[in-house]
């Protein structure tokens, strides 16, 4: 368990750094309205952030997901693996979808306040240069200050956990699609149908593929979550009111806004997260497999023992079934 948390932290940090600029662009596009339109599209958003806020503008609020990524990854690994015991064959697509949904539901309670902080910090100081932003009056000084002020204004349920229902609505189908998508990719793209036999470049492609699959089925919920969490408390009565007002004023296209940078983000984030985790898992868990070394019986006589092909075969510990040894990739925030 401790190693899973450690591996998950390192892999999650790597994936977060790789994909975070795309996440900032996604959130900026999701939260802008027709009445206050700052960016005409993904490329325009990238260019304006780079020019106006420098490269550091892409990484606003990154400390929030960096802090929580170890806990979230550890929860997902633990819940998903533990819930496999509920099924006789945990490697079926149905079982993987159910166990993934359970893992997504549990981690949403940790993920929701983290994303609340991340979203509010990402849209803070839009268009301001780094030096001017530091000198100007802004609402939040950092993640802890954001949580403290959110709690002070609306309490725990309506303040800190604002948007929890949409986080659940997003993460349950997202993880329910994520693990079966990875299994599908392994079965069809691995030379032997096992993930351990896939080359590294295929793991990179597989991570991007599963990330895109997970976001595709859950993206509209993410849009509403971002808009609701970023808005002031008096703008919307609730998540349903946010969805209705967004649809009435901006049409169905509002639910796909920012999808391009989101899919671009999924490629490096998931492509880096899984290979790093798998590499750490193989490297540091290797000493535990010493008992798999081929052993020969100790001779009971001083006479030399002549071994032949017809002698009693040596015992080799069979590899554990894929349901317990496979390393499943984790979707980063």
From TrEMBL:
SUPFAM superfamilies assigned to the protein according to its UniProt record, in alphabetical order = Mitochondrial carrier
- Residue ranges of region Disordered? 293-333
Question: Residue spans with biased composition (Low complexity)?
Answer: 293-315, 324-333
One GO MF term attached to the UniProt entry: transmembrane transporter activity
UniProt name for this protein: Uncharacterized protein
Q: How does it sit in the membrane?
A: Multi-pass membrane protein
Swiss-Prot/TrEMBL keywords: Membrane, Mitochondrion, Repeat, Transmembrane, Transmembrane helix, Transport
| Family from the record | Belongs to the mitochondrial carrier (TC 2.A.29) family.
Asked if Signal is a keyword of the record, the answer is no
Could you tell me where this protein is found in the cell? Mitochondrion membrane
Q: Got a GO cellular component term for this one?
A: mitochondrial membrane
């Amino acid at each position: 368990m401790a190693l899973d948390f450690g591996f998950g932290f390192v892999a999650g940090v790597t994936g977060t750094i790789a994909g975070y600029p795309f996440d900032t662009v996604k959130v900026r596009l999701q939260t802008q309205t027709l009445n206050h339109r700052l960016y005409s599209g993904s490329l325009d958003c990238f260019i304006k952030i780079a020019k106006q806020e420098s490269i550091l503008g892409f990484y606003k609020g990154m400390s929030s997901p960096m802090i929580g990524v170890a806990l979230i990854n550890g929860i997902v690994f633990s819940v998903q693996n533990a819930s496999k015991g509920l099924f006789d064959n945990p490697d079926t697509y149905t079982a993987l979808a159910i166990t993934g949904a359970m893992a997504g539901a549990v981690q949403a309670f940790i993920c929701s306040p983290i994303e609340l902080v991340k979203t509010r910090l990402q849209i803070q100081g839009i268009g301001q240069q780094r030096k001017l932003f530091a000198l100007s009056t802004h609402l939040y000084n950092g993640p802890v200050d954001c949580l403290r002020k959110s709690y002070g204004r609306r309490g725990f349920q309506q303040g800190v956990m604002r948007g929890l229902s949409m986080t659940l609505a997003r993460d349950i189908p997202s993880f329910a699609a994520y693990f079966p998508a990875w299994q599908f990719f392994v079965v069809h793209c691995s030379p032997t149908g096992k993930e351990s036999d896939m080359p590294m470049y295929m793991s990179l492609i597989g991570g991007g593929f599963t990330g895109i699959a997970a976001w595709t089925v859950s993206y509209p919920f993410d849009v509403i979550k971002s808009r609701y969490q970023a808005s002031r408390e008096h703008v919307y009565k609730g998540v349903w009111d946010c969805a209705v007002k967004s649809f009435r004023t901006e049409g169905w296209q509002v639910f796909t806004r920012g999808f391009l940078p989101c899919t671009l983000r999924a490629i490096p984030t998931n492509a880096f997260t899984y290979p790093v985790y798998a590499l750490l898992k193989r490297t540091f868990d290797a000493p535990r497999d010493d008992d798999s070394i081929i052993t020969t019986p100790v001779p009971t006589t001083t006479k030399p023992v002549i071994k032949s092909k017809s002698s009693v075969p040596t015992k080799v510990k069979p590899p554990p079934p894929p349901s317990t040894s496979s390393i499943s990739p984790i979707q980063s925030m």
